[in-house]
Amino acid sequence: MPVSASLCWLSDTPPELIAQMFQWLSPKEAIALRRLSRGINACISTKFFARMSLYAATTSEGTSSTMSRAHCELFLRAPASFKAVLVQINSTITEFCYNGNRNDGEKSPDTIPADLSRLSHLEHVAIESSCLIGPIVHVSDLSSLKTLNLFGNALTGAIPTTLSRQLTSLSLDLNTISSPIPASLGSLRSFIISSV
Predict the structure, then answer these.
(1) Handedness of CA 142, 143, 144, 150 (dihedral sign)
(2) Distance in angstroms (rounded) separating the CA atoms of residues 49 and 66
(3) 31, 63, 142, 146: which sits with the fewest CB atoms below 10 Å from its CB?
(4) Strand, coil or helix: what is 170?
(5) pTM of the full predicted structure?
(6) Residue 43 CB: number of other CB atoms within 10 A?
(7) What is the rounded distance in angstroms from the CA atom of residue 132 to the CA atom of residue 156?
């Protein structure tokens, strides 16, 4: 069957059947298929599919306190439905660590995900070299945050004055930060801030 005929058949397939066919793929592979058609995108972008895919793919890759590298990458790049399920699966984690340098695929610029603030137990956040752009947002609500490492992104603007008072280490090296360290962060024991 020619490729165009295969895609036409797949586009006409009921969403429930698409979900069953794609459940055997890793979440990352399934998300990549969203570009095939609107119907596939609609199916793969549902919370139902995200939950089915993520629970099927959950392994012992991460510990109870650390989100797995695969889940961190999905959290940064996946549709909102996947982020919502990842928050449910990882609601008690204390560490979120991701280094985009180890990513083999092409990275597209994105902002710090708003859903990060829903991981309320986070104490350590490190999102390095991950093509993050825009202001430093969505980390101010993390009241338990002790270390924040956003090294090597393209973040801009001011350092939020509302960062956790428990913060002891801040690394914003290789970003374009336009403000000094706020006085409210006087308890920092370690900080690295420089521009590109």
Answers:
(1) positive
(2) 24
(3) 63
(4) strand
(5) 0.80
(6) 23
(7) 10
